[in-house]
């Protein structure tokens, strides 16, 4: 093969504008590869073996010549080149460590300087040029022998423009660096219609082309033939291009928008963003000039600030005022949409505003007009994009759509830039704050340490000593004192002087009062820091204290007010033997310390006051509990013999006083109910009530409540209607407490309804709850009472005779018990005289989870009891109660003895050997607990002990159990209940020890 010579670039400065030399002859090829002389060589190849051989020869010749190698290739090719070098005896690792061989991955290197699909010249110089610079720095003037596949990769990826751009960057780098470069391209990439243009461009970028056995000229001829065929097809494709033109424009706009969006969203410099938007939008819509105006409202009216221009120098606008809220400009800045005009001068809105009535002289020749608002996501109009052209009808719908897209990108980018700027400013402010905080850190730490010390002080004396020690050290003086005012701030509460002060000076200082003109009292009066330096100045300001100053040898006198919420609590006095001048920072720090001392003083006072108040409240609470317990005991004690007397009268068959017996029993039961309510609400509010929750039928609980209130309903001749759901509903409740709730509601309804009135209890299921409504047609409630009706001690309208009775705790008890069961209560009334409706809502449990409550319910106290005669000892210091209870027990067949104190009871026990002991707790000299313990020790398990007492709180029951009682009854106890307990206990059937 012959060598075809063409004008060639110089070896030292290859220039892509000259034609390359095609090297075909093998000898010339070998000479070129052995001595490239700064050439830029390209090889077109079809098989890897062809490439590996040529490149290996090129690299080995470089090593023989002592030239450093830089290889930028794929992993497979790097491995092949390493093997070729090793085969010739070169150790690749040794060469790499010595810097003679640098191998880089082609794709990784591309990523260092590609911005999107485009190579960046600066990044190329920094990455590739940087590598060459480092290698050259190690080998002096020796030329570098480089091989690169980055352009081949770009061509393979379908980005020929980028490949040619990289070739150009290599050429530009070759003007500054001494190196030869071997490039390679896979020939298969050029077997396309446009291959001729690609080959020509690649060849033109190099100084030498290695043809080998490939007939490039033949390929060129083939490509030219194809080109001719293309020309023949052009007229056939014209129609297709026309049809696709609109789509192409849209695609171009879309690509431009994507490019712009990508660029804008990565840019945070506001000025660059707006300029980029203006430039790109001007290009997309083919405008001669474009501008972006910010939407700015100035005091004199709406004016729009020019920010960027495209297609014309900014100076063209220098002598013109900013546009105003005219009919043409206004819609854009109001965000009303795009304005597109083929000829703005012919629009009816044009030329209507003074003073120009159109465009001023020298203005840009705008005929075609296009404007779009830039609107933030919040709806704020940030500004407007404006485009013009000197010819009419330039802008079309596609341009309008393109500008709308750019405006959307611009809005997001401007908002992002603003947010970034705000964050940047915030960071700057934070940095400045950190610097200031660091400068104050030492003082703050000292202040915190002092604060901790102050918080540990337990009294004024200790607090004052800490203040003196710490503040004197900070102020740089030797001695100090503290004056604290009383709570009113009108007198000295304490005056503490540093122990180091001489006694004569201390005595003279303590003789001063609040009216004395001295630094410490001046600070209290003014609330300001007082600081006087120098003996002469001190004597001038405080002449009457000259002898005191002289005795102390003071050269500095000062005082710091102890402040809290703007009022002085006292002051700290300072005395120093040297002149100590305070800086502004010292003054500020001391004042802060004074405020901390004030908080410490106030905190100590509040702490003392809180402890005193708490102790007082606890004492009052204990007194209240003791009072309630005593009240219950004292009220129940007289009720027991009264109720027992009624039972005796009935048992003896006394019928002449039946009406009186009923009245007595009803009133006693009413008083018992009041006492129970009062004690219950006390226990609930203190959290002393524990619920014994079990599954119970709603119908059973309602029946018990109705049974309890039936005597009252019958006595008042009310008509009571009960309505329950057809299905059986189950509640997980303490049935005694819920029965108490319903009883209270029904009792209230009966009491507050005139005789012969209507009462109703209606229960219905609503979702997962049962709603129980108790309704009456009684006195009703005024609207102002409804929000408070469930509060403690709240009652409605009462007659002067208080015929309805009650303490105002029943409904409060209802609410507390219902809430404890996870329910709620409510009330409604149409007003006075229109009745009331109280509602209880409780959660239900599903039938398949319900478990029947143990037994069929408690044994009815009305049930008759089969009595077996027992030996019973009754002990009660209330003679009436003991006598009547004994008579009652004897009436049913028991053998009973009575004692009124512990000593007599023990004597009777020794002789009588009772099976049952019924003991009162509040006995004289020896209480029931002590008596029960002794009786239990003497009789072991042969005696059953029952407490019948007026004390009914939980701690009373617990104490009775610990003392050995088998049962605990609260006075007055029903006869049937007491007899039942006697039979159960004595008959061998065991019940819980605290059963009542």
Write the layout of secondary structure elements.
Elements: E1 21-23, H1 26-34, E2 40-45, H2 48-64, E3 69-73, H3 75-87, H4 92-97, E4 101-105, H5 106-113, E5 114-115, E6 118-119, H6 121-139, E7 144-148, H7 150-156, H8 160-174, E8 179-186, H9 195-204, E9 208-210, H10 216-265, H11 270-284, E10 289-298, E11 301-310, H12 330-333, E12 339-341, E13 368-375, E14 381-389, H13 397-455, H14 460-475, E15 479-485, E16 492-497, H15 503-510, H16 519-526, E17 530-533, H17 535-541, H18 546-552, E18 556-564, E19 567-576, H19 584-651, H20 658-685, E20 694-697, H21 698-715, E21 719-723, E22 730-733, H22 735-751, E23 758-766, E24 769-776, H23 810-820, E25 824-828, E26 836-843, E27 871-875, H24 879-891, E28 895-899, H25 902-912, E29 916-919, H26 928-939, E30 944-949, H27 954-963, E31 967-970, H28 975-986
Parallel strand pairs: 1-9, 2-8, 2-9, 3-4, 3-7, 7-8, 21-23, 27-28, 27-29, 29-30, 30-31
Antiparallel strand pairs: 5-6, 10-11, 10-14, 12-13, 13-14, 15-16, 15-19, 17-18, 18-19, 20-22, 23-24, 24-26, 25-26
Question: Overall mean pLDDT score?
Answer: 78
Kindly state the percentage of residues in helix.
40-55%
Report, as a whole number of angstroms, the end-to-end distance: 127 Å
Q: How would you sum up the major sheet?
A: 7 strands, parallel
Radius of gyration: 54 Å
Question: Given the helix and strand composition, which structural class is it?
Answer: alpha/beta
Characterize the overall form.
elongated
**What is the count of helical runs?**
28
Strands in their spatial order, largest beta sheet:
1-9-2-8-7-3-4
Total beta strand runs: 31
Model regions low in confidence, pLDDT < 50 over at least 5 residues: 1-17, 797-808, 848-863, 987-996
Range of strand content? 15-25%
